[in-house]
User: Fold this.
Amino acid sequence: MKKLISIGLACSTLTSAAFAQNFEVEPIVGFPDFGFMVPPGTGDGEYTGPVFVLRDDYPKTMPPLDSGVQEILKMDFAGDSINYATAVRDYIFEGNIRGGSVEADFDLFKNSVGRDWYHAPWQHWGPNGREGYHGLTREGPLSPYVLDKTQKDKSSAYAVGFYNGPGGLTFGKVWPSADQGPDLSTLIAGEGFPEGTIVGKFLFTVLDETQVSYLSNPLQWNAYMYDCDVPSSAGYGGDCTADKRSTQKVNLLQMDIMIKDNRAVDAAGWVFGTFSYNGNLPADHQYSAACEQYSGDAKKWCNLVPVGVMWGNDPDNDIGHLNLTPSVDNPTVINKTLKQTVINPSPDLPAQHLGWASRLDGPADNPGSSCMSCHSTGQYPAVSPIMLTFNPAEMPHDGATASPEWMRYFRNFKDGEAFDEGRAVSTDFSMQLLKSIQNYVEWRSQSQQGGYAVEYWTDNNVGPVTRGAHLE
Assistant:
């Protein structure tokens, strides 16, 4: 059994999980589960319900690929893209949707079909760290009008991700124990995630149908989130570093998927997909089959409609286009000259801004980037920022030829290749793996009042690790 670790956090951070669960849920106290939560107890304003527990008992050997993964790896991600993405979505759903209250869904310890799923450690630390209801971290900003033309308020997305067994193996190699720092030897050797790794991620927002039309009939979770992100709060728009949080209902907005499929040779073996929630669909729509067995709100998981799939960044396609404010009268613009992105043409998909030049991007993502472009910067140290610029005015617009500096963010990659090759080690397109390492080093440096040589691997300032659409 692992030793109880002391990492300089408040005692409530470590004890609340054990208090609100039971002794069978988390018999080994490993990595901290979360960083922010209502205090545990029975007093006024305190909480006694279930809380998020980090699944961190990573496998030590490569688990066999289950039949679901094997079937996905037989599908044609280029020729049958939307069905491929939907199959991955449904694979992630299976066993993780409980069929009762959606608040109980995606408890990775209770997968009903016996599949193992894991979380990334060290997402609890820092001002954007995990909250205690569902392990949601505060992510990129949702600037006005990025989701819909009627979105007048800004906010932030809150997200949680998870990896299947093969992905958990890689996390276990980098994080062999909660009692020690990360082991980077496999990453230095160019070893990343094995084929068959599947990643799922949900993004939520406190914004609702009054500003985002397709968030009607919402699927909601509780979240302990910053008041600065809640338009109805007295603290809205204020200083988020003041740690003023409250329990709020947040609405499912987006789902991201990644599949390590070695046939995707131009994307370091990764296939990316993303989904947008659409609460305006009828009960029996073309993506609803996986949820027919459920009743009540559980059916709403299938309102996640595929936006598309990508398996490369089309590096030769350098003509700019930005579709900043999607709406019914400003619909999704599909770039038919792209060869490594497929966008879903279905009318069930709400209007999307997509990424730069209509590459794949989700509603919460920056329209000057793409799914692959963002994740390709996953490396430690984070030498290059996640984007060249967040300012839309500085991005190549309609018909403009992008510069070589801009197109550096839309390259294709070999497996194990870092974005800044020779100056950093690749985290194999995993921003969560990168963030776990970065958080640990920053915490350790602060708590020990010392620096690490690894911070000097590069002669550049380390770039921010963030996502989202800065349109103001």
Notes: Confidence is low (pLDDT under 50) at residues 1-20. The chain is about 15% helix and 15% strand. Residues 11-456 form one domain. Helices lie at 11-20, 67-72, 81-93, 165-174, 185-188, 371-376, 404-407, 431-448.
